[in-house]
Amino acid sequence: MTERKSSLPRRPRPADNAFKGEKIRGGVNEPTYGGALSFMRRFYARDAKGADLAIWGVPFDAATSNRPGSRFGPQAIRRASAILEGDPQYPFGFDPFASLTAVDVGDCALDYGLVGNAPREIERQAKEILDTGATLVTLGGDHSVTYPLLKAHVAKHGPLALVQFDAHQDTWHPEEGRIDHGSFVARAVLEGLIDPKHSIQVGIRTHAPATHGIEMVDGNSIETLGPAGVAKRILKRVGKRKAYLSFDIDALDPAFAPGTGTPVAGGMSSREALLVLRALAPANFVGFDVMEVAPPYDHADITALAAAHIAMHFICLVAMRMGAKPRPVR
Ligand code: MN
Ligand code: MN
Asked: Which among 284, 274, 286, 169 is positioned nearest to 228, based on CA atoms?
């Protein structure tokens, strides 16, 4: 019998890069259906010291007004991100981890029986991560989580310009002692965490009593302005100021993000949203989050996939700031 040349690889594909990988930089080639699910197969690390970027989950949804479930968001987004593990990322044309060192620092530890302590605890743990010097990308969790995240970032950077993608303004009156995913923006303005004159909300298609002077690109304007026009409005509003980017997944149409607590029809497609994000490289973002992914209402991981792509875009924007050269737009 003549020897047969096998087309199969001699060794099995590697698994569990999050724990067993040898190089912190670069992509991996791990089966998407198994292995330890860190975000984009990055190493797990107890702290982010020495890393350029940290990915962190905050599985908290006790401030949800309607349908809870976003506590399962970080797990689902990590699982969906396995498909984005190693190749050059579209449309950037580079592997962000060729230059950027990024680690997954796991999830925020919270006591479900002490809901009132959650914001303080999230802020404290976020500060610990930021103290290492890493840029933080947070996976939510309901949108109340962005308030303590803003506090942690503002403690380091001073007041920030907020760029918020959302179907909702989240400007409902923040009553003392309440934790509510619909009022974090009002709280942030009233406490001077964000500068409303340089903040902007994109994709809004509900009415709330107050704008607090924040510029708004509502849901229908996405169609008239187009993604390039929307990006231009954002860049003009924030200028070169330090900014924070918060993406409530319900900014997308329920066709592209059914798995969320408060879906609203008439939203952006994932393509439109990603086109806007891709064009935001000139902005000076110091922090990012993607919130409100609620897997119990998801189908075929549509929503988690959208969130994973959004977080990947955040990471590529950071890589570009650190010198990665994107492929020209074709
Ligand atoms: Mn929101
Ligand atoms: Mn919303």
From this structure: 274
Query: CA torsion angle for 100, 285, 326, 290 (degrees, to 10)?
Result: 80
Question: Helix (H, G, I), strand (E, B), or coil: what is residue 79?
Answer: helix
Lowest mean pLDDT among 10-19, 23-32, 46-55, 73-82: 10-19
The CA 43 to ligand 1 mean position distance, Å, reads 30
Distance 101 CA to ligand 1 centre (A): 30
Other C-beta atoms within 10 Å of 305: how many? 22
Q: What is the percent of the chain where pLDDT is above 90? A: 88
Question: Residue 57's beta-bridge partner residues?
Answer: 107, 139
Structure tokens given for 69: 């479930």
Dihedral of CA atoms 143, 148, 153, 156 in degrees, nearest 10, equals: 180
- Rounded to two decimals, the pTM is 0.95
Q: How far is the CA of 247 from the centre of ligand 1 (A)?
A: 8
